[in-house]
Amino acid sequence: MLPWLETIGFVCMWVVTVLRAPAALRDRGQRDLWLAVALIALTTTLYQDPISEGLSRIVGGPLHLIDLGRNLCDVAASTVLIHLVLGAALRRQHIKPLFAAAALMMALLIFFDLTSPPHGHFNGRTPQIPVLCWYLLMGYHLIADAIVVAVCWRYWRRAREWSVRWGLFIFGIGAAFACVLWMVFISYLITPVPAILSYVPPVTGIEEILQAVGAGLPIAPAVYLWAKNCGRSWILWPLWVELVTATPQVTLMRPRFRVVDTMTAVFSPELRLYRMVIEIRDALLILTDHIAPSAIDHVRRTVENSRPEHVDALTAACLIHAAQRARRHSRTHPQTLNMAELGGEDLEAELTFLLHVTRARNSALVKDFVDQLTPAGSVVVQ
Prior knowledge:
By secondary structure, the chain is an all-alpha fold. It is built from 15 helices and no strands.
C-alpha cells in the first residue's frame, strides 16, 4: 500500500540531514536533532531489502546481524530524540535514567539475537526470536515517541520564531504517526495477520515526511537565502564576465564556464556575490573614463520617457556598451558622468540595481541605442 511514500520519506530525511549538517557542526545545540534525523534516515535506509542484502554481501555476514544493527540504530534514534526534548524542556534530571533504559534495551536485543536458535533474520516475523523481545522493543519506541509528541505540542506555542514554532508542531505530528506505526506493529504481534503490515510503508512515509519538514523548517529561511543568492549569482554572471574581460585587472579569478563558476560558489554564494559586485563596480570606474560626451547626451534623450525606476539601469546598460567600444579603440574622454554613482547605497540595493542592469541589456531600447553607436563608442550628432 503506497510503498512510494516510504521512499519519499527517507529521501526527505536524508535531504534534511545534509542541509542541517553545517549548522550542526557549528552549533552544539543543534547536534541532537541532526543526529536523530540522521539515525532515522539511516535506519529507514537499512530497512530497504536491496540495501540490507547488499550490505550483507559487502560485509560478508548473515542478514540477522544487519537486522540487529538497524534495530539498534532505531533505539539510538529514539533515545537521542528523547534526550533532545528533555533538554529543551529543562528536564535534564531524567537523562541518566534514559541512557540506562536505552543501554538495557540494546543489551536485551543483542542477548535475544545471540541466544536464540539459528535464524536468518532478526525481526518480528522470525519465529526463533521470543515475542517478548518485540513487545519490549515496540513498547520502548511507543513510549519514546509519545514523550516527543507531548513535549513538542506543549512547547510549540512558546517559540518566538515562526519557523521553530511550526517546526515543533509538525515534528510532533510526525512523532504521533510514529506512535501509530508502533501500534500497527504491536497489533501484528497480537494478531499476526499479514494484511496489517501493508499499512507500514504509508505510515512510515507520512511520519518521515512530517519529521523532515519539522526538522527542516527552522533552516528554511537560510536555505531560501542560499538559493536566492545562487540564482542571483547565475543571473549576474554575464554582466560580470563581460566587464572583467574588458578590465581584467579588477578580478582575482578569471571567468570560467557559467555552470562551473556558479557551482564552485554553492558553499558561500553571498561571498561570491559580494566579490562580483566589487569587481563590477571597479570595472565601471575604469570604463567611466572612456564614455564619450555624445553618448551621454544621447542616452539621456533615449531614456527620458522611460519609467523613473528603470532610468538608472537603462542608462548604465547603454553606457557600458559605449564605454567598452571606446576602450577597445583606446579612446578616453573627460568625465562628465560617473557610472559608479548609479545604483544602491548598500549591498542589497546594489545587487538589485545590477540585476536590473543585466536584464535591461536585452531590452529593445538598449539594443536600439547600441545600433546607433560608432565603432569608437560615440554617437554621430544628426
